[in-house]
Amino acid sequence: QSVLTQPPSVSAAAGQKVTISCSGSSSNIGNSYLCWYQQLPGTAPKLLIYDNNIRPSGIPDRFSGSKSGTSATLGITGLQTGDEADYYCGAWDTSLSAVVFGGGTKVTVL
Amino acid sequence: QVQLQESGPGLVKPPETLSLTCTVSGASISSMNYWSWIRQPPGKGLEWITSIYYNGDTHYNPSLKSRITISVDASKNQFFLKLNSVTAADTAMYYCARGITVLTLDSWGQGTLVTVSS
Predict the structure, then answer these.
(1) Closest CA to B20 of B104, B98, B109
(2) Which residues of B touch A56 (CB under 8 A)?
(3) Could B106 and A92 be called an inter-chain contact, meaning their C-beta atoms sit closer than 8 Å?
(4) Do B45 and A32 touch (CB under 8 A)?
(5) Which residue from B101, B69, B89, B64 is spatially nearest to A90, judged by alpha carbons?
(6) Measuring CA to CA, which residue among B112, B100, B88 is closest to residue B39?
(7) Which of B61, B58, B35, B67 is nearest to B48 (CA)?
(8) Residue B91 needs a FRET pair 20 to 30 A away by CA distance; which of A5, A12, B47, B67 works?
(9) Average pLDDT value for chain B
(10) d(CA B112, CA B13)
């Protein structure tokens, strides 16, 4: 059981938009910056979004992040087959004094 | 460009100690960054294990704290993980990573699979 809650899977047709939710509490998302990681099949995770909504250099603007209260959302527009991956949200939990992750969401391009 | 490479035994017997090394290239381990270990059991999600800041400050996953040690050898540009009293539940892909913060992990190693089995 992960501290942060994500849907197990989302899907959409190529070119469409998907959103992935990440729900937590006042001890984590409500009091911490949020990160999103992309894990392509068989590879290490890659930083996709940090500080809630900032994209590292090289990450296309098709990826966006937002946060409101104790929830956050990752959006992917113009969905491509290369976006098929597992996506994880992460935050610092002040009660646990630990980094916590969501259980991951598998994105499928129909 | 920073690169990280994990190394260590792929098979560990219970209840022995799992020892992993992360070798960093392209950046100094003494730079103002966090150096972290994260693991992923087969078919499951990510679990943060521990992080060490360049000044020696450490952070541990409370569920693992009693069994883990993280350390650094700046002369070799390496950092290490020791996890003692392993069980089958410690079987996982182990990743080392560099962090801008303890949460913002901007560079990852490719991972090393460790199986715990007698």
Answers:
(1) B109
(2) 106
(3) no
(4) no
(5) B101
(6) B112
(7) B61
(8) A5
(9) 97
(10) 16
Please identify which residue in the block is written with the tokens 């250099």: A57
* Nearest chain B residue to A5, by CA: B45
Q: Which of A31, A54, A99 to mutate to test the interface with B (most CBs of B within 10 A)?
A: A99
The one-letter code for the residue type at A6 is Q
Which of B5, B94, B104, B112 to probe the A interface (max A CBs under 10 A)?
B104
At a CB cut-off of 8 Å and minimum separation 6, what does A6 contact?
Answer: A20, A21, A22, A23, A87, A88, A89, A102, A103, A104, A105
Distance CA B33, CA A82 (A): 31
Q: In the predicted model, is pLDDT for residue A44 greater than 90?
A: yes
* Partner residue opposite B103 with nearest CB, options A56, A91, A104: A91
Q: Indicate if the pLDDT at residue A68 is higher than 90.
A: yes
Q: How far is B75 from chain A (nearest CA, A)?
A: 27
* A97 reaches B (C-beta below 8 A): yes
* Chain A touched by B61 (CB under 8 Å): yes
pLDDT of residue B10: 95
A47 touches chain B (CB under 8 A): yes
Res B89: pLDDT: 97
pLDDT at A88: 98
| pLDDT for res A1 | 84
Question: Dihedral (C-alpha) B33, A87, B80, B99: value to the nearest 10 degrees?
Answer: 0
Residue A50 carries which DSSP code?
Answer: B
pLDDT of residue B61: 97
